[in-house]
Amino acid sequence: MLLGDAERRMLINIGVSYNRRLHVGKIVNWQYSGEILPVALESDPLTRQVNVATSPVAGTFVTTGEAPMVTCAPFVNNYNFTEEGTTFSGAATFTCSGRRWTIGEAISPVGMQWNFFPRRKTQVFVEGHGGYMYSTQQIPIAQSGSFNFTLDLGAGFEVYRSRNRSIRAEFRYHHISNHGTAQYNPGIDNGLFQITYCFRLGRR
Questions:
Q1: Region label for 163, one of left (φ > 0), alpha (ψ between -120 and 50) or beta (otherwise)
Q2: Which of 63, 134, 176, 183 is placed for a possible disulfide with 49 were both Cys, Cβ 3.0 to 4.6 Å?
């Protein structure tokens, strides 16, 4: 967790990327990198509420499948209020239970990649992207918006099987945030492991 606050979130992305060489030398191969992710799955833990009531009727009431919480640390709400002459009192405990998956799509039109020692068969690289993600419902909590901005920074290695074919393996820090465009903005941080099969079209 670096920039986000929402805990126990998961992210799965499936898509394609486009790279174009901007400059190549003996030390570094500098490339433009853009990505389109038609499948972006985000998962939030759901809320479980255990309400131990003492008034007006004593008993324990359990509710599951409610909207996600920001944090999964147990939270206890002791309540005591009167409404229309009736006193309600007790303690409600909120925890995480179950999981909800939300489908969306994303695009990262702004990105760069730097491959070091480009004449070698195995090359170390670093990269970064910026873009947006649109989901079918608000994530990571209610009233936090369906439109979010994305940022990722990653590093890995690329192994060339031939001049025009390679495989990239990398680890990324990925951040999702609505940047204050909705009522709440807890933000989501994920560590992503990504495998990419690459092939070159044309001379560049």
A1: alpha
A2: 63
